[in-house]
Amino acid sequence: MRKLTQKMDQAVKNIDNKEGKYLTFTLADEEYGIGILKIKEIIGMMPITSVPQTPEFVKGVINLRGKVIPVMDLRIRFDLEASDYTDRTCIIVVEIGGENSNVMIGIVVDTVSEVLNIKSVEIEPAPSFGTELDTEYILGIAKIEGGVKILLDIDRVLRSDELSMLESVG
């Protein structure tokens, strides 16, 4: 009983830490959010140079003002159905913590929605789907305006081996 109480207390503390501003975006008609402090910029689609021997979700690299940045398609990373890019498709450039240093990575999303200030009372812990599904990259679920938004821990979307591979690509 004590362990359960400690876990619940920790979950409440973790949710309090998640309050803040989030950039929201859509993937396959679902709403997601990333903490605004992780966002460096949002750019329209641009030519992506493919890089051989990379996982399918890594679309390649872009040249952003002289800096080479690896780009991944979040739809493919999350095993969602691939979709053609449209005039609303964007690349969100995020900074994530790598093993050696912070890494800039572009993530392709269907559309960027808005920046929301999400309060801790609107955030619930990520549901447990058992041991089969890895949900460590989900910070929580925000209940807003009758819907839900999946809040991502962008630092955990990639495994350490995948992040190391992207560090070497960029």
Please supply descriptive tags for the structure shown above.
disordered N terminus, 43% strand, 18% helix, OB fold (Dihydrolipoamide Acetyltransferase, E2P), single chain
Model description:
- The chain is of the alpha+beta class.
- It is built from three helices and eleven strands.
- The protein has a single domain, classed as CheA-289, Domain 4 (OB fold (Dihydrolipoamide Acetyltransferase, E2P)).
- It has helices at residues 2-18, 74-77, 160-169, and strands at residues 20-27, 30-35, 39-44, 58-64, 67-73, 90-97, 102-109, 111-118, 123-124, 138-144, 147-152.
- Strands 8-1-2-11-10-9 form a six-stranded mixed sheet, with helices on one face.
- It starts with a helix and ends with a helix.
Distance between the termini: 48 Å
**How are the strands of the biggest sheet laid out side by side?**
8-1-2-11-10-9
> What is the overall silhouette?
globular
Q: What number is the mean pLDDT?
A: 84
What share of residues are in beta strands?
35-45%
Structural class based on helices, strands and sheet pairing: alpha+beta
Number of strands: 11
Let me know the largest β-sheet.
6 strands, mixed
Helix segment count? Answer: 3
Order of helices and strands: HEEEEEHEEEEEEH
Share of helix among residues? 10-25%
CATH architecture: Beta Barrel
Q: What is the CATH level 1 assignment?
A: Mainly Beta
Q: Tell me the count of domains.
A: 1
What kind of assembly state do the chains in view correspond to?
single chain
- CATH third-tier fold name: OB fold (Dihydrolipoamide Acetyltransferase, E2P)
CATH homologous superfamily title: CheA-289, Domain 4
